[in-house]
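Consider this record:
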Amino acid sequence: MCMDEVATHPDWNRLFDTAAAQEGLFTTKQAAEAGYSPQLMVHYVHTGKALRVRRGTYRLVHFPAGEHEELVAAWLWSERAGVISHQTALALHGLSDALPVHVHLTLPGDWRRRRFRVPADVVLHHSNVPPEDRTWFGAVPTTNPRRSLNDCAREGMSPELLRQATQQALRRGLVTKVELVEVEEALKPFGGLAA
């Protein structure tokens, strides 16, 4: 059966395969595609086969919670259209001492017009992120180091953390100075990159 086809009967293997690729998480829509009705999902939650992570997102209980489950849950909430970005992406790349409290997620620009309830732990940004600005961190797409640093510069990240992250990325060969025009511009009033 093609993954785009909707199963007519519950297909545990299909649901499991979907969840396994997403740190054990899946959405109501993905469950429906595997033949699971909303009523059956409620039953699975009550019987302990699935755990509700947030509205419309579940985790198979026999699948251990992943270290970055909150990132996968945010990405699934965005219907897999978002990209983990900004300070959250820097943390994933091991750049700076920034410890973001919220998940920074960049959604396509046309999502600005949509009305929806944003999860409390998610900070939204809107921009179209082309494939060359993306990389994967486990089960989720994230902005690459160059894009992450420039995004943080545009959003006014603290100069100390931005400088630290940039210096680390340069030392590790993840970026070149030429790629960081926005970072250099943001740090100019604070003594530049070498301050």
